[in-house]
Specification:
With 154 residues, this protein is mainly alpha-helical. 75% of the residues lie in helices and 0% in strands. The protein is built from 4 helices and no strands.
Amino acid sequence: MKIKRKLVIGVLTGLALGLSLFIVGAIASQIIYGPQLAPEGKFDPEQLNAWYFIWTKLVIGIIFGVLFIILYEALPVSKRIQGIGDGLKYAFMLWVVINLWELSHPLVYNIDTLNWQDQIFWLIYTLGGFLGYGLAVGYAYKKQRENLIPSPGS
C-alpha cells in the first residue's frame, strides 16, 4: 500500500478512534466516577471541559491511527482485513496485547498498588476506542478493496 493511502486511512480511522474514545470515555466516567467525571486531582479545572477532551482524543486518535495502520501493513499476516469483522479482530487483539502488558506489572510485583476503579475505567475506555477504530479500519479496507477490484463485465 502506498504511503499516501496509509496516511489517509490512518488519519480517517484515527478520527474514528478519537471520537470513540471521547464518547466511551464520557459514558464510562459517568458510570465509574460519577458527576465529577474524573478522580479528584487528576485534571486542572480548565482541562475539565468537553472541548479539551475532544481535541486531545482526536489528536491521540490520529497519531495512533496512523501508527496502527503502518504496523498492520508491516505485519506478515496471511489474511488481510476483508471487512468490519476482521477490523474488529485486529483492533481487539491490539487492545488485548496493550492491556495485558499494562496489567502485568502491578499483578506480578504488587497488586496493592493497583487502583481498580481507574483500571476498570481505562479498560472500558480503551476497549471502546479500539472497537471504534476496528469498525473504521474494517470499513476502510473493505471500501479500498471494492475500489481496487474491478467489477465483472467492466
